Amino acid sequence: MWGDVPVAATILSGTDLSAEIRAEVAAGVVEIREKHGVTPGLAVILVGDDPASAVYVNNKQRACEQAGLYSDSARLPGSATEKEILAAVHAFNEDPRVHGILVQLPLPDGVEQHRIIEAIDPDKDVDGIHPYNLGKLLQGRPDFAPCTPAGIVELLMRNGHDPTGANAVICGRSDIVGKPLAALLMQRGRGGNATVTVCHTRTRNLAEVTRAADILVAAIGRPEAITADMVKDGAVVIDVGINRVDDPSARRGYRLKGDVEFESVSQKASAITPVPGGVGPMTIAMLLVNTLTAARISIHGRHHSG
Ligand SMILES: Nc1nc(=O)c2c([nH]1)NC[C@@H]1CN(c3ccc(C(=O)N[C@@H](CCC(=O)O)C(=O)O)cc3)C=[N+]21
Q1: CB distance 144 to ligand 1 below 6 Å
Q2: Is 241 in the pocket of ligand 1 (CB under 6 A)?
Q3: What region holds the Tetrahydrofolate dehydrogenase/cyclohydrolase NAD(P)-binding domain (predicted)?
């Protein structure tokens, strides 16, 4: 009927879905306050003055306020020592108003990142990156799934793309996105049951692997690394990349580009997330969801059902 003109993909809007989820969180906040007199609270620790990090931290703080959460932050200079960062973590560990703690990564060179992460009280680890929480995730009984992977699963499930039985290919093997997303997509249960392949810089014949994907996730950190020739017809494509590309004509002097070449890939995919307005806002929404979970854990303890 349309001849050879490809039908463009459905846009999976993280902006819309995150608003829906943040409204659910706001309702949960009211319930916890009425039942238990507790206001869920999130604290963010930001080290250094990277402008992109500052934008995310401000977005998180605004999202907290809109959902009725208490929010706090500690901003340390880029010259802060490991000891000073640890002191900030310990202070929030002990602060009863704070149920969730997020340490913005990456930390400056010379700071032992794992030592900081392991200092976070696992019951307050709303990023889900403490070894205890990553271990439980790998066992298929997560309390806190890392926010970006959790947001990707919600984007899929709430748009009718259940991964069950699908070939899911993830490009990127980071501790905060690729690895935990692989665990979520492969596990038994909601949002899982996919056949998962994880690609990285040493993968041979990358395009051959990605072309086998029913669900393709790009978490590479290189603008437009995924091109149309790497994508199967009808694939669902999730773009995790948030790359700042210089653009003198843009108001801020740069534009955001994903890891996917949107214009060509959207002609081939059946569904695709945009950048901005895709995975980014979902990450923030899931951070609020995890903070609500942390507040519930502070009241009831962890559930021992899994
Ligand atoms: N411990 C830790 N946890 C993180 O989750 C974490 C982190 N460290 N370090 C930095 C990355 C990055 N990140 C983003 C979150 C939201 C947007 C976001 O909302 N982006 C908007 C656009 C924002 C803009 O205009 O710059 C969008 O994609 O539509 C982006 C990036 C979380 N991160």
Answers
A1: no
A2: no
A3: 146-296
- Could you tell me the distance, in angstroms and rounded to a whole number, from the CA of residue 4 to the centre of ligand 1? 38
Torsion (CA) 297, 17, 163, 293 in degrees, nearest 10: 0
Q: Is 56 in the pocket of ligand 1 (CB under 6 A)?
A: yes
Considering the four listed CATH numbers 3.40.50.10860, 3.40.30.10, 3.90.226.10, 3.30.530.20, the one that applies to the domain covering 40-121 is: 3.40.50.10860
Q: CATH 3.40.50.720 occupies which residues in the chain?
A: 146-282
Q: Which residue has the tokens 């021992």?
A: 304
Please report the atom of ligand 1 found closest to the CA of residue 102: 1
Active-site annotation holds for 136 = no
Report the CATH architecture of 146-282. Answer: 3-Layer(aba) Sandwich (3.40)
Contact 193, 220 (CB under 8 A): no
Q: What is the ipTM of this complex?
A: 0.98
Does pLDDT of 3 surpass 70? no
Of 232, 251, 236, 233, nearest to 194 by C-alpha is 236
Q: Residue 50: is its pLDDT beyond 90? A: no
